[in-house]
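Dock adenosine-5'-triphosphate; give full complex structure.
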Amino acid sequence: MSLPLTEEQRKKIEENRQKALARRAEKLAEQHQSAGSGSSIAALSSQSKQGPSHSLPKDSSKPVSHGVVFKQQKTSGSSHGDQRPHNPHSFHPSTLEQATGTWKRPEEMPTACPHHSPPSQVTLAGISPPLAQSPPEVSNQQLVGQGHSQVSHGAKSTTFDNSTHEPLAKAKSSQDTPASSSGQLPREAQLEAKAARPSTSGQNISDVHCGSGSMMPRTEGRLPQKLGASPRKAVSSQEGICVRDGDRFQVKIGYNAELIAVFKSLPSRNFDPDTKMWNFSMSDYSALMKAAQRLRTVTLQPLEASSVAQTGLPSAPSLTFVKGQCMLISRARFEADIGYSQELIALFKQMDSRNYDVKTRKWSFLLEEHNKLIERVRCLPQVQLSPLPKTLTLAFASQLEKTSLCLTADVPEADLSRVDPKLVSSLLPFQRAGVNFAIAKGGRLLLADDMGLGKTIQAICIAAFYRKEWPLLVVVPSSVRFTWEQAFLQWLPSLNPEHINVVVTGKDRLTTGLVNIVSFDLLSKMEKQLKTPFKVVIIDESHFLKNIKTARCRAAMPLLKMAKRVILLSGTPAMSRPAELYTQIIAVKPTFFPQFHAFGLRYCDAKRHTWGWDYSGSSNLGELKLLLEEAVMLRRLKSDVLSQLPAKQRKMVVVAPGRISAKARASLDAAAKEMTTKDNSKGQQREALILFFHRTAEAKIPCVIEYILDLLESGREKFLVFAHHKVVLDAITKELERKKVQHIRIDGTTSSADREQLCQQFQLSERHAVAVLSITAANMGLTFSSADLVVFAELFWNPGVLMQAEDRVHRIGQSNSVGIHYLVARGTADDYLWPLIQEKIKVLGEAGVSEANFSEMTEATDYIYKDPKQLKIYDLFQKSFEEEGSDKDLLEAVEAFDPGSTSGTSGSASGTSGSGSQDLGDWLDGDTATGSPEKKRRFEFFDNWDSFTFPL
Ligand SMILES: Nc1ncnc2c1ncn2[C@@H]1O[C@H](COP(=O)(O)OP(=O)(O)OP(=O)(O)O)[C@@H](O)[C@H]1O
């Protein structure tokens, strides 16, 4: 094995090589001067005196040009000041790099570079493509001599403005290089030539163009030769341009023997000794262009389309390489997003379903013509039009194969006769449509209805349709495990309650029930149990799976792949960017975009950086929306179905009893016992009741905080949280401060002026915000109509007060159906307060002075009547809260027990400034603390999401 060269040795070798190459170039120049012949070597030598040549050395084994484009030197030394080095010795990469500023190191080269590609087309001066056409990446050479930035448009520019032509005109006056007998030597200052710069890096021909900074088109194995098209141009072919000159046209190009032979074959040829350029009649234009196209060493830019049109002659085939892709624009049509090419347009015009959009200046076609178009375009050597990705052609297979136009997807009515009639008859029309959609999709979908539209009832119905395939797995945020249990009990009376298994700890079994409900975090801790595949899986708040790297996602994805039915639920499937949708898409359709990178390139505006790829952007959202709607997702906004919704949607959220610590449980039990102690006086009983109420507040704090954090993580932007006890209000505000969530707080200590100002602050807040409000101090006189969700962290015995509190959002100015969530904890005072409240509302409803739709939730707490002790406590609650003037007395008693709970003691706090306050871990056990990850950037994409998903 030989030793590697030292840096110094390498430098020396390189220097020597440079010298040898320079000597060779000088020698060639001398040869040319003495011979004056029309050979390409002569041309090179001629240019070597002035600078780089247009031509490549014939011997391709010798070092080749780097394809660097230089402005031709002016020997006159005019004020145009050609700063190109006169001596080939100076053609060093570093010189070029400085001179042009666009030199690229190999590692910066476009990925397309290694492919053998058609030559970069120096300019598109002869073509006036529609401005709005997205420019091909391959158009312009970017390396030009100093002072000629007008031709360095960057890879994306295809158009030339008038200024581009200006130097062309000026150049006519500087023709001081002697012409050979058979043709003029390159001298036109406006023409860019490839530099005959010796290779210093061992780059191959492909690299040459990369080095020039040109974005080379990828041909991806589509060899023109194969298709019988014209042979591929040499990588460093000589570029020239056709220019109108009265009723004739000139060809501006450096010396090229083959081309001169062509010139000489044309009947109308004429050589102008003054300009030293060949010119022709327009009748020879077509023949010349066709002949030039066959020459490997020449790339001739055609005349501007307008010039050709004036003559009434058929235009010459375009020599410009254009590259683009097909994009879906509707369920039935796709468009070609590609630069201008005459040949391509001619082809487009042959398609039956063609349509040209004058606004976007793009052509579109019916999907059924997609394959035909792509096949035909493949025969155009200068055009690369990428077809729609396979995922799209699969998703829209029926449209691709269709012979007639059908713009709407017909969803058949599902046969729900096997599902509990109670559930089926309760479905609102849009919910029924959702169930139909899901079943039409084989039970795999992302149900992305807006929050509060009843995704739970729809999911249960869809799952119940596949009941034969159960056991069912339901993965949910831990704060709503028991709410899901209640929902199953409520909507599926046929389901034996004992067949519902709510997994509470990591030690529980995941498969004991017919319906198994588990939190995301516990799921990731139950790896061993996940080996048993579930055929039917519901994932609530499926955006919790947006990050493939998380343990919850890693645990869930294999399950979802194996499952036959996958029902994902999320009101906010992506909150920041389309990348967040990827896992949910492949969870529903594992065959879609097997590689994230392909998805990222198309929909995440993927960008390569030195550190890797950045997928945080978004692109082609219209197409992504179509794809999702066609194959993956159903999303309805509240505004879409408002007429079907009740003005208020109340929901009892059964908070997890597992969150209540042993200490809090013991305090609760002691307080409950006190209430049922015989011989206690009425005053003592009431005291015990107040203590029980207070202990309930303390015990619920972890559940309440967990629920609020889950709401925030689920994208709920603005909501109110009502609580009664100061200890609860304090805990919530502390946590919001700690998480830096913008919030306001209004309690009994808040002055009237501050109340109004805080209210305004909340109303006008554009981003997420939480209003933490005291049930007794902020239940009236305030408007929070910019929110549409109210959470009751605590229950209060007077339903009138609760309803007033609800109406802070449900009032004039509110255009949405509002959600009201009551957090109810089992084994606490809530067991008594909740039925008591419902009972009172029912009575008021019957009397016509109140709504009575709490009744749907009564079943959830029926169990309390089974225990005589509980019955006794319930009686006590009833008596205490129903006595004349009880509210005032009770409030005073509560206040005495928990100073600040009714009037509050902490001043109104607002804003996000939070100090490191008490850790959530104080309130929550381990599972919960890890269950609510740090709030990151969210909401931004959700805004866009709505606008692109449901255009107004
Ligand atoms: N058809 C219906 N009949 C009676 N109640 C319904 C119906 N649909 C939904 N609800 C009630 O509306 C409330 C909101 O429903 P649900 O919690 O399923 O909404 P969601 O879409 O899951 O909202 P989020 O995204 O906020 O979780 C619940 O109390 C639910 O019981």
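Observed: Residues 682-713 form the longest helix (32 residues).
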